[in-house]
Design brief:
The complex is a heterotrimer. Chain A is of the alpha/beta class. Chain A is built from eleven helices and 21 strands. The longest helix of chain A is centred in the last third of the chain and has 21 residues, at 299-319. Chain C is an all-alpha fold. Chain C is built from seven helices and no strands. Chain C has helices spanning 14-28, 31-51, 54-62, 66-81, 88-103, 111-118, 121-139. The chains are: A alpha/beta, B alpha+beta, C mainly alpha.
Chain lengths: 381, 77, 140
Amino acid sequence: MPRRLLIVGSGTAGLMVANLTARALHAQLRRHEVEITVVGEREDYVYQPGFLYVAFDLMDPQNLTRPVRDLLDPGVQFVRDRAERVDPDAHTVALAGGQVLPYDYLVLATGSQIQPQEVPGLAEGAHWFYTLDGAIRLREALQEMQGGRVVLAVGIPHKCPVAPVEFTLMLDAWARGRGVRERFDITYTYPVARAHTIPAVAEFAEKEFARRDIACETFFNMEAVDPAQRVLHSQEGSDVPYDLLVAVPPHQGDALGAASGLAGAGNWYPTDRQLLRVAGHDDIFAVGDTTDIPVSKAGSVAHFESEVLADNLVGLLADGRRPGHAYTGRAFCFIETGLDEATYISFDFLHPPTVPTPSRSIHLFKTTYNQIHWANLKAVI
Amino acid sequence: MVTADRVIDARGSFCPGPLMEMIRAIKTAQVGEVVAVLTSDSGSRTDIPKWAEKAGHELVEVVSGEGGDTISVRKAK
Amino acid sequence: MSVTLPAPTEAPNLALEGVNLANAVFASLTPHMVTRFGEVAESAATALDVLTAPEILSLLRRTQELAPLLEQGLALLAAMAGPDAGDAARLADAAQKASLAAAAPGRPVGLRELLALRREPAVQHALRFVVALVRNLRAA
């Protein structure tokens, strides 16, 4: 009877865990001692960090998408369907299509999704670059815009914590490059009392905004949008008029969590920050955006977590070894500061981030990394 | 020390950080519930109370311990 | 307002930029990536070792003589395939028929020339190259 690993989610974390585990257990897979199955809702994988570039017409949407089957180790089964409910007592996952998949170990990698409906008027009045369709819509809006007031607003929680700063600085560079910067009025808003939750990033951003004539309004939490009047209202009583509102909508985890009674508020799974086990379950793990671990919701976090989880799963599946590899909170995020310069932050649970001087080299490294990512997904590098 | 309805261990969290974890938790809490955040960041001692005041919630207590502080806020509206 | 970015507050520093880039690269490496680089380097070194064995290098040089013969052979196949020469599938079909016909008596014209190619030294060297490669790979 093969030991079965079931992974729900075919995004970054799901694919990495599947491929890293499959690579290490090739022999066992061949001998049918181990079975690895990935359940994913979509046929295609989409490279989400590319959306920001699509908005500025710097990346082509078709280069962001590849079939999941092309990215999965041949030893891994892919079931294209939606997982509806986990039954932790029966150790099964029920799919929308009717199948019920058993597991010995379950990995929940269902990511996070925007919930624009949480802010009244946001869906009608705002643009965003957090979906491919949204990024394309924003690209068109920017291309048509001759000038005017662009306002950026941020909901909590959200994935990719530095993206609001990136978009703002890229917008500034983009407008300057077109020779129309003076026709734009750019206002960046943020929910806490500084420009970013990370003090070093806040300090960097505030300096850059001042240098580039970008208005910065802090302690600004979106309350509602008036799409007709084109005004954004904050919970703190501020009213900001806009010609183009670019929002980072608040996010939530997948409904599977609530349906299964496993997730807490926001549909995030309560997860042990070191071993990535879902609270109260020895055989259920969570990885990537979908956990409630106090780390960034970011691809790099999914990557660092996936390696740890895969190492532990390999031990469990190969010979029942108790998990001993721990996630240390590592994250690595590029920060584009224009169209051809970037910096980055690197940190973990013990070491806070600092922001090095931006440079073209780091931007080029980021550009290269957009391609390396595919090799990472396949566990080839 | 008050008994919180939700406790979040945000020690070692540099991003999103203890304040964001508090905001996130208060958002989904019921009015009257108490959210406690464990933090190892000394900045939280000023950040969180300042936010609570501005956002109109009640700062219940700040307890200093070995690993850091436990800051509790009651959702007021 | 300037159309270009305002002057940076610090003068550009190439050494600092180099250090920042190196730090960025190291910070971005995951433990598995480091292991994989080692594994990939080992595979690449092994492959290079196999491909650059003296025997193989010598055969590789000799197979350069193969090119015109390859062209000749393809031209003969094309003539046998006739109007279907542009279709790769039919060309392959013609090649298969030719090899079958080779065993039968009364071989068609053109086939003789094609078979003669097989005995050409360069073709023989190419076949020996493939054999040596396989042998070296098995040992790797």
